[in-house]
Amino acid sequence: MKRRISHPRPAVTAAAALVFLTAACTSPGGPEPEGTAVPGEGSAGPEVEITPEPGATAVPPNSPVRVTAADGTVTDVRIEQATPDEIASGGSEDPEEGGSAFEVTGTLNEGGDTWVSDWNLRPGAAVTVTATAADASGEETEVVSEFTTLEATPGQRLELAANFPNSGDVVGVGMPVVVTFDLPVTNREQVENSIEVTAEQETEGAWNWITDETAVFRPKEYWDPYQEVVVDLRLSGVEAADGVYGVEDHRIEFEVGRELVSTMHVPDHEMNVAIDGENVRTIPVSNGAAQERFNTTTSGIHLTMEKYRTLVMDSATVGIPEGSPGYYRLDVDWAVRTSNSGEFTHAAPWNGRIGSANTSNGCTNMSVEDARWFHDQSLMGDVLETTGTDRQLEWDNGWGYYQRSWEEWLSHSATGRPQSTDGSGTPGSVHGEGL
Questions:
Q1: Catalytic-labelled residue, pool 250, 269, 302, 363
Q2: Mean pLDDT on 225-248
Q3: CA spacing 20 to 30 A to 302: which of 42, 54, 168, 242?
């Protein structure tokens, strides 16, 4: 049974940060920083050792901090970090705005004599580790160790380039978490383990990679409605590729709203919309004519991605240029995107066969009234389950991620293990191999 020791990270003042920055590099002949406490004859308290060793410089930031107590139990560990810029400004940053102020928690082994940090350190930081251990009689030993970490090289600093959803968004129950980095990621397992997803209603999920830069987290099943979800991207110090380190932490906080699930069996020419399990509207529709693959509505689990009051639909954007068979360019109202291959629900007042025949270019045509209602009801991440055609939605077409079974999705995760959203941490280590 492992136990996690978590302590609030105290604010780093300019004066305090300057003290441990200068202490990390002692001049020849000067006093050595104390990283190991050994009781002398007649003294009490356990022996405590901290690694990385005190006074070390250019420590890889993805190195774990370890605290061991001989003949005792580790009772408290605090880690403070500050970069030269923070020392100059007198404060730390906010992870919600791309800072690096997350506390560094750790896990205590079953015997209680070894503590290992859960997260990486910050590149180019002065680090102070204060550890306390007690023996069976209650006598305590406190040790303070100071060292510095390797700076991230310009051009090799992993940054978060984009994400969906954004903080403050209210989303549907199918909503994935999509994060895109500015550099390719090859150490995918460490990066996956550096991103913790916590939800008020416990579930499990996992990451898959769309490209070397983009990763997607989805739950095993849809989110429970009416809950808050927090995504902590503890990227600072993670080695995303050889010599490429994350430099900032981020936090995304969003809300899962009501459960809206629409179902549509294409030959029936209607869509049923259920909110919180109750059918609230049956909408007559006209789907793809299915004369060619491009105008066949896809079957599968779609998620609503974005919506528009008005939209110019040009088939050239999905690979059918002007002059080609099937080319179209239409001005439409009340459009809701459900794939990247050009599928939307939208108003089609020109279509006289809504509710009786499938005549569209692949989109779901509705009356103006129904299309506006569906547009106004839709949140990003709502679910549209479509059946009845011979063209399947690809798992990476738009947000078709539920097209992979849970077993298949999990097998494509770099960790190969689910992540619980109960706040217990990620499935594996964020640290570099052999460190």
A1: 363
A2: 98
A3: 168
Average the pLDDT over 293-318 and give the result: 93
DSSP state for residue 291 in the 8-state scheme: S
* H/E element, 171: strand 170-171
Compute CA distances 389 → 283, 297, 382, whole Å: 19, 7, 21
Q: C-alpha angle with apex 290: 286 to 294, nearest 5 degrees?
A: 105
Rounded to 5 degrees, what are φ and ψ at 29? Answer: 90, -10
- In this prediction, residues 223-252 reach a mean pLDDT of 98
Whole-number Å distance between alpha carbons of 324 and 327: 6
Handedness of CA 106, 249, 207, 305 (dihedral sign): positive
Q: Which of 134, 147, 116, 183 shows the shortest CA–CA distance to 54?
A: 147
Catalytic residue check, 25: no
Cβ proximity of 66 and 54 under 8 Å: no
Which one from 346, 375, 412, 431 is the annotated catalytic residue? 346
Which residues sit opposite 209 in a β-bridge? 215
Residue 33 and residue 401 in contact, taking contact as beta carbons nearer than 8 Å: no
DSSP symbols for 187-231: -HHHHHHTEEEEESS--EEEEEESSSSEEEEEESSPPPSSEEEEE
Please tell me the predicted confidence (pLDDT) of residue 50.
97
